[in-house]
Fold this sequence. Notes:
By secondary structure, the chain is an alpha+beta fold.
Amino acid sequence: xxxxxxxxxxxxxxxxxxxxxxxxxxxxxxxxxxxxxxxxxxxxxxxxxxxxxxxxxxxxxxxxxxxxxxxxxxxxxxxxxxxxxxxxxxxxxxxxxxxxxxxxxxxxxxxxxxxxxxxxxxxxxxxxxxxxxxxxxxxxxxxxxxxxxxxxxxxxxxxxxxxxxxxxxxxxxxxxxxxxxxxxxxxxxxxxxxxxxxxxxxxxxxxxxxxxxxxxxxxxxxxxxxxxxxxxxxxxxxxxxxxxxxxxxxxxxxxxxxxxxxxxxxxxxxxxxxxxxxxxxxxxxxxxxxxxxxxxxxxxxxxxxxxxxxxxxxxxxxxxxxxxxxxxxxxxxxxxxxxxxxxxxxxxxxxxxxxxxxxxxxxxxxxxxxxxxxxxxxxxxxxxxxxxxxxxxxxxxxxxxxxxxxxxxxxxxxxxxxxxxxxxxxxxxxxxxxxxxxxxxxxxxxxxxxxxxxxxxxxxxxxxxxxxxxxxxxxxxxxxxxxxxxxxxxxxxxxxxxxxxxxxxxxxxxxxxxxxxxxxxxxxxxxxxxxxxxxxxxxxxxxxxxxxxxxxxxxxxxxxxxxxxxxxxxxxxxxxxxxxxxxxxxxxxxxxxxxxxxxxxxxxxxxxxxxxxxxxxxxxxxxxxxxxxxxxxxxxxxxxxxxxxxxxxxxxxxxxxxxxxxxxxxxxxxxxxxxxxxxxxxxxxxxxxxxxxxxxxxxxxxxxxxxxx
Length: 709
């Protein structure tokens, strides 16, 4: 009996497997075999397509085309994403979707950018007729309930891999049903790709518009495949036509080609890249056997910023050995401009291997830049070192040195992700010609004492990060800041000391990194508590304000040259400035908008405009105010490793009392890096406060060192 049960068990395990196998077919992109789809059955299509996933927060769509080999009829299939950011697209069709009783199916997937026209079907028929677009391989099963289930792939290797994985899953897992898409099964073991953005603004800048780079690269590859088919056919036609030229026509066209090249070169000297492109295009057709001219046509496409077309033409060209380095260099630069840094590096290596004096050094520089974008910081420094060792251009050497420093900065940012404790701070000495009572951030009073003096500044922030993920983190920040005033001989300054604040605060920010509208984005939502202590009347330091705060800081990377910031703040302030009197207590709110505009490609020049509005809703008229701030900052590099900055700021503060302040501040300064952790800064400011009750002018000079560990 046991033997009979064992045989029955084996039989039940084997038979379904054979049944499944019998209903399974693989259809390759080449060969004569076609899938027969009967109109009496429904069918569904699954297609994993990264390049269609344009918006990670929305459900995207795309088009496939099914062609009947017998009639040539095209069926446009509209697929939708199964869920946002899945890159898996599907559609289901009911019984009776075909005009014929059955069709012999071919499946095509053109670049979606070519379908932005109402004449899509006509264009697809032309591409198929000219054989400039290939069929897609697919796997098809005929199931009892689901009908035909078709899984489409971009290449044969992906189809076979998915098929083998699917068979493995059938043998190992009991919960895989016949209706499961093979694409879905194959994805079960794929790692999840998370696209994140670092909280550092500088780091965020270089991830701008990068969250969909894989999709963009896939789109470009798809486009190039079609363009290559079109260009190959065109080029073959030109060469075939040239064989029918007479000897006189050939000589005449060679002369015309020489004239076109001259026009192209002259246009290039005048930076007229479109006219230069036309010249080399005509020359390449007039002398089709001259591969060097055809390669120059590819270079002219690059100069006219037609990077995909340039890659196609350069790849098809077969220039002389003397021009091989140039060909590979412009192939690499085309990929670099398309931000396909892996392919760019591959071709830069080919150029560097030639040691070509015209291209090898520049190729190594851009290889280093590519490796930075790929996160290969140590390798990037080797590429820049090659530049320093072999370049004869001082400006290129200078840029290579700066990019080595920049690579080190990026590496430190990367390394910081694994840390849980950080500390930053400032130690400074300032001369102040007219010490004011508190500063702009401490209850906004700014009453001038009339006393000059020297002030010591100390500030430190410790950060502990108990929770960290690539997209989220929670930190604990402890802030300490204090000022200590002396007279100009460093003796005690009782009047100045009444204006010295000590601030202690704690914040617990939640940081989230990701995308917003396909742009790099992060925010910090930071509740906190702050205490300010001062000796206002010379009788001893006491707490003057306790504040509960909630700040919401937002950063959006618009593009590689523009970072936008929007910050909101809300606080409840318990003030002891009037003793037990509560009329100075307030609810305060603020809004600050600013932008960082990067003015040059080496990240050495910035323009930073900003706007802020603040309101302090206190019961006492002397402490209730609203304030508008406007400012602009300009930062640029000077000399080697030095930065210069200048700022002009203005604010208008209106109090509920009769006081109105118009404040103008101009400041300028320089800074330099001492080492990877320490910086030195020197800053001077001149301030005019035109007030109905508190007029003054002052200047100060501050020298400080800042550190970060």
